[in-house]
Q: What sequence folds into this?
């Protein structure tokens, strides 16, 4: 009975949502009709140009603003889309005379051609992205600039599409008795905005921003950073290609040549994204409108207009360095808040079997001539809480980096259950059940506390991106589930009150706790804690110690703990491993360790064998 | 292509490479200290070329011996651009020093557009080709295996290497250079040990801009046509050269410039249409094989 009712509710909900969508299309169509009848042709053209630039800016914002990959080659993708679409539609029009007489067929063909342009650009994005996205920052920027120029020069030398002369007389397929080209531009602008908005807001899409904030930390919560970088690139390229197709078919344009897509075009897109604010879609929309309309409205002052434009750009950046809107986003729907009182228990009690879970066999890590870790052996049994201690530079963090796949050991092997971890990428190791925190906190600083934890659910989201784009009911349900889980975990550490604050604004102790929560959200088999109480005051230390012990006692979580604070280690660990100069020098219960002469020597230095002879003072 | 042509291309490539190298050197200096892609650098080339042009055309250089004329042209262009560079830094970049680098990049693009379109108003948009003959004439100096080497080739090469040596000396052997390197590593720490950061950065801009001016004059000498947009492509390519060599590394920038100049000249000979793609293809190949550039040193991230 309940399933029938919920299925009915689902259908109703979907019907409502898609009728809303239809209403939006209808509204756009009405606008289009009104504009076509009333607006003077130049203003109408300008409006379409704004729409095209909007698509460019929003798609580039996905790459630059959300994923943090600096791309200077967006015009190249636009060119690919424009050429692919224009050449196809020219061919089609030449070979099928029926096209001119049927508005329906013409519209369908135009839709197909724009999608084709997008797909061609997406393919180009994939080809460019795969090799170049290994580069970072300015190197990536210049490599993408390079690819953009290579694409342009390729078209100059491609005689099939007119070489340097370009393509002329592109059929304005978007113009039919029922619609004008504006309707298509508006439609695609709305689609672009919606898709990017839905994607970056859903749990899977947190991956993009996590990559921007900290790639290494993203990998360590199970995010395949390369995949998401390339995906952002391909998606961004797709929409840039669509923008190119729309541009080429504009009834007042109908002509493209390679010079249309010079690197200044890419720069224009970058300027729009940054002026609007990195990571703000509202900002991109505003900037695309203002920066497109401005030079045109300034035409009356002739040659001074571009100088004024340049000055405005400088002044704008000086007065609003984060762009018009910074990362701010217009949102019209208040989220329903989940009450922290009715949350289920986040962790399931687990009775440990006591069998070996994590095993390091003779692991050695060598950096050039330096051996950071030598012949390290450790067998961590399920349910154990083991302390790893040693003086600064002993190699403790290196051991963590080996286990989590940040380094591949020069020799030796690492096993989780019976699965080899060494040589595997960090995101897989994280998904298989090894979670960690970092000695120098590595949170996603600009993301909210809640989103930091949600980032650990990226690979556990369990729905494809298109489900998020269509806002399917099961996706929405899953989102609420994930949020509940995150909140429950946050509550456990007393952080749920601050869930909407940016992680960077939390006090130090809370940041450390948030890192532990983020690691727990992976539902790990093993938790590696790298100095979780460093920099905390005694009261905070006590609280965290207590929690670590609870994680181990009540929920049977296996924990390996690096700590400098002897009180912490001796207080909660039943077994302690001591390292010095990359090697294990002692192992045993806290009592054994406390009295071990080698450990004392490592921490306090060797006792002097011979006292220094007193200075022989010669009488003058 | 026979040996003679090959050698002739080699000379041409080296001459072009020398100019790229000089621009890249200035780029690299500024980048090394501020990590800023100074988009306006290419337009300073243009300003330098125009300054040189006006001095060369002015009646005051008439009657002076040739070396003095050249000296005057270069000196005034370099001085003028140094002042302009410092001004740009002071007004457009310094207020944003604590801001994300992308913000400064957009300002740099703004400055670049300002110079280009401002240049079109002040100098006119049509290219000028009436450069004085003494400035642009290529006088054959010697023949090496039937290959001509002219005085201008030597001037470009000599100038590039002299300036490279001078910059290297400045950066590696003077207190000012030490301050530059300190700022490049950690600006806050540089403040703490009492370095006048603003002054050092201003001076760096002055130096970088005067290098741009010198290359602008050389560009005008070798390809006698100047216009307000002339700096755009050489600027971009020189940046490519700087990245190619390992950005921030001065000898790397020069090496990158020569690699680029040679590659472009040779490919341009076989397929002139592909000339502009060469720079970027070479760049991408090298970045993929060695992401830090030819001479750049990678930095290891501490986890």
A:
């Amino acid at each position: 009975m309940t399933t029938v009712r919920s299925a009915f509710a689902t259908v109703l909900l979907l019907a409502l949502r898609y009728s809303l969508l239809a209403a939006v299309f209808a509204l756009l169509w009405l606008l289009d009709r009104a504009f076509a009848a009333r607006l003077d042709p130049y203003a109408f053209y300008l409006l379409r140009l704004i729409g095209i630039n909007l698509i460019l800016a929003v798609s580039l914002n996905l790459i630059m603003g959300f994923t943090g990959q600096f791309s200077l080659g967006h015009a190249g993708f636009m060119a690919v889309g424009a050429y692919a679409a224009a050449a196809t539609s020219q061919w089609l029009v030449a070979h099928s005379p029926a096209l001119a007489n049927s508005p329906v067929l013409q519209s369908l063909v135009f839709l197909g051609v724009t999608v084709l342009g997008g797909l061609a650009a997406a393919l180009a994005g994939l080809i460019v992205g795969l090799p170049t996205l290994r580069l970072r920052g300015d190197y990536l920027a210049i490599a993408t600039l390079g690819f953009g120029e290579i694409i342009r020069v390729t078209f100059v030398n491609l005689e099939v599409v007119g070489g340097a002369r370009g393509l002329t007389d592109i059929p304005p397929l978007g113009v039919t008795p029922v619609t004008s080209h504006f309707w298509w531009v508006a439609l695609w602008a709305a689609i672009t905005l919606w898709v990017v908005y839905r994607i970056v807001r859903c749990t899977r899409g947190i991956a993009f921003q996590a990559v921007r904030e900290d790639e290494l930390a993203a990998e360590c919560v199970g995010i395949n950073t390369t995949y998401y970088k390339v995906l952002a690139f391909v998606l961004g390229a797709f929409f840039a290609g669509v923008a190119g197709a729309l541009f080429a078919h504009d009834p007042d344009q109908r002509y493209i040549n390679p010079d249309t897509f010079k690197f200044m075009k890419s720069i224009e897109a970058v300027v729009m994204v940054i002026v609007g604010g990195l990571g703000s879609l509202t900002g991109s929309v505003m900037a695309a409108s203002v920066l497109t309309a401005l030079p045109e409205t300034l035409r009356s002052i002739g040659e001074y207009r571009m100088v004024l434009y340049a000055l405005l750009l400088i002044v704008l950046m000086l007065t609003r360095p984060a762009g018009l809107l910074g990362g701010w986003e217009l949102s019209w729907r208040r989220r329903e808040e989940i009450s922290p009182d009715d949350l289920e228990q986040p962790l399931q009690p687990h009775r440990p079997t006591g069998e070996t879970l994590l095993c390091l066999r003779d692991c050695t890590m060598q950096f050039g001539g330096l051996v950071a870790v030598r012949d390290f052996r450790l067998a961590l049994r399920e349910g154990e809480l083991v302390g790893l201690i040693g003086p600064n530079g002993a190699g403790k963090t290196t051991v963590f980096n080996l286990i989590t796949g940040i380094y591949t050991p020069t020799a030796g092997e690492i096993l989780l259950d019976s699965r080899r971890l060494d040589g595997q990428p960090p995101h897989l190791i994280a998904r298989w059940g090894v979670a960690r925190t970092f000695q120098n906190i590595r949170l996603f600083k600009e993301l909210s506390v809640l989103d930091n934890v949600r980032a650990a659910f990226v690979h556990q989201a369990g729905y494809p991106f298109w489900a998020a784009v269509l806002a399917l009911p099961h996706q929405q349900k899953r989102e609420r589930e994930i949020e509940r889980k995150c909140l429950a975990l946050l509550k456990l550490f007393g952080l749920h009150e601050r869930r909407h604050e940016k992680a960077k604004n939390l006090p130090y102790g809370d940041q450390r706790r948030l890192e532990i929560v983020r690691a727990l959200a992976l539902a790990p088999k093993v938790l590696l804690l790298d100095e979780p109480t460093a920099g905390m005051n005694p009261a905070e230390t006590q609280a965290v110690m207590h929690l670590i012990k609870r994680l181990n006692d009540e929920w049977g979580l296996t924990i390996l703990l690096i700590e400098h604070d002897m009180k912490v280690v001796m207080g909660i660990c039943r077994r302690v491993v001591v390292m010095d100069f990359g090697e294990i020098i002692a192992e045993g219960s806290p009592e054994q360790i406390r009295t071990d002469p080698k450990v004392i020597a490592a921490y306090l230095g060797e006792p002097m064998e011979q006292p220094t002879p007193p200075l022989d003072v010669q009488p003058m | 292509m026979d040996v003679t042509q090959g050698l002739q291309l080699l000379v041409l490539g080296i001459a072009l490479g020398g100019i790229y190298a000089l621009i890249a050197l200035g780029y690299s200096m500024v980048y090394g200290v501020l990590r800023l892609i100074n988009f306006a650098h290419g337009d300073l080339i243009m300003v330098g070329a125009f300054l040189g042009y006006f001095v060369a055309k002015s009646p005051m250089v008439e009657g002076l011996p040739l070396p003095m004329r050249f000296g005057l042209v270069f000196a005034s262009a370099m001085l003028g651009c140094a002042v302009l560079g410092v001004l740009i830094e002071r007004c457009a970049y310094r207020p944003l020093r604590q801001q994300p680098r992308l913000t400064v990049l957009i300002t740099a693009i703004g400055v670049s557009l300002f110079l280009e379109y401002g240049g079109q108003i002040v100098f006119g948009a049509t290219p000028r080709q009436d450069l004085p003959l003494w400035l642009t004439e290529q006088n054959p100096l010697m023949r090496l295996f039937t290959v001509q080497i002219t005085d201008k080739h030597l001037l470009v090469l000599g100038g590039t290497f002299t300036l490279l040596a001078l910059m290297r000396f400045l950066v590696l052997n003077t207190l000012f250079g030490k301050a530059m390197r300190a700022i490049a590593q950690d600006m806050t720490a540089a403040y703490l040990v009492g370095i006048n950061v603003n002054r050092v950065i201003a001076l760096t801009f002055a130096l970088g801009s005067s290098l741009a001016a010198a290359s602008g004059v050389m560009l005008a000498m070798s390809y006698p046509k100047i216009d307000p947009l002339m700096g755009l492509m050489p600027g971009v390519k020189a940046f490519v050269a700087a990245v190619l060599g390992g950005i921030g590394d001065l000898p790397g920038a020069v090496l990158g410039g020569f690699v680029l100049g040679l590659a472009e000249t040779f490919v341009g000979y076989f397929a002139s249409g592909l000339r502009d793609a060469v720079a970027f293809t070479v760049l991408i190949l090298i970045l993929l094989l060695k992401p830090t550039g030819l001479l750049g040193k990678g930095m290891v991230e501490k986890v």
